[in-house]
Amino acid sequence: MHPSLSVIFFTTLSGAGYGLLALTGILAPLGAVPQDRRFGLAALAVALALIAAGLLSSLFHLGRPERAWRAFSQWRSSWLSREGVAAVITFVPALAFAGVWIFGGAVSAILGFLAAAGAITTVVCTGMIYRSLKPIPRWHNRWVVPNYVALAGMTGSAWLLLLARLDQVQPLLPLLALAATAAAAILKAAYWRSIDAPAPSPTAGSATGLGRLGTVRLFEAPHTSDNYLLKEMGFRIARKHAAKLRRIVLISGFVAPALLFCIALVTSGALAALPALVAAALMMLGVFVERWLFFAEAQHVVTLYYGGSPA
Predict the structure, then answer these.
(1) SS3 for 106?
(2) pLDDT in tens, 179-207
(3) Which residues, 6 or more positions from 20, have their beta carbon under 8 angstroms from its beta carbon?
(4) Closest to 90 in 3D by CA, of 41, 50, 58
(5) Which of 159, 174, 235, 255 could pair with 264 in a Cys bridge, judged by C-beta atoms 3.0 to 4.6 Å apart?
(6) pLDDT tens for each residue of 66-105
(7) Which residues, in sequence order, are CB contacts of 160 under 8 Å at separation 6+?
(8) Cα distance between the two ends of the chain
(9) What span, in angstroms and rounded, lies between the C-alpha atoms of 121 and 134?
(10) Does residue 174 contact residue 265 with C-beta atoms inside 8 Å?
(11) How far apart are CA 68 and CA 119, in angstroms?
């Protein structure tokens, strides 16, 4: 598939925002993060800003952005519509949670857990948009949704650690960030292993129903030049480039941040926020590249009708 920058920005930014919102909503009532209003304002403002920026960037992917509201009516059958509904609903407990904490000085467990549940549900819906697409084998994969959730939790934990360190607090957040990074790395490796493994895939014979008669080959190309389907659905990335980008994802998204989280475990004082800041920046870059690869490495089975093979 042709990678769309608007969707990549959306999944990267909103994923981090929902991860930060979910972790804050769960950990704040448990007393695992600072309870003062200043931290609540910073954590929830950053989370909601990331979510809003991601949602706004997704509008650029629409041909008619002014009609985006119509997508909400298809929630019974469309995961895209369910994602939009969940995203809007999540703002209600999230804003209430922020208001009670910032203006009332109290951390509401009920509102925090509701905001966290809404954030996790929205990320699951985002993953299911791709998981539900059977014509794209590399997306119709059991590891897609767990990866979306894990990457949101990983980037959210990095932002939470950074904000806590700016507050000069030394809780167990570096360990949480390390655990989230390790879990996301394991799930990402499982996804890559899954899509790289040889497996039965659609062929021109199975797509046309003529496979029982023998090998089905393309007699003549349907078009003499590229068209929309080939540009969008048949986008290809060279194997050597994919391997290089995967290494960038591993180093920038997982390995380097993990090492910096280890440094964060043993640092304190004014410099305590520096490793957390660098880790968050590198991780966002790594996840951005990972999102680009997620699209670039997938192909629609429609390419079979053009003499291609589904990846």
Answers:
(1) coil
(2) 999 999 999 999 999 988 876 566 666 66
(3) 43, 46, 47, 50, 155, 156, 159, 160
(4) 50
(5) 174
(6) 566 666 777 788 898 899 899 999 999 999 999 999 999 9
(7) 20, 23, 24, 27, 33, 43, 173, 176, 177
(8) 10
(9) 22
(10) yes
(11) 21
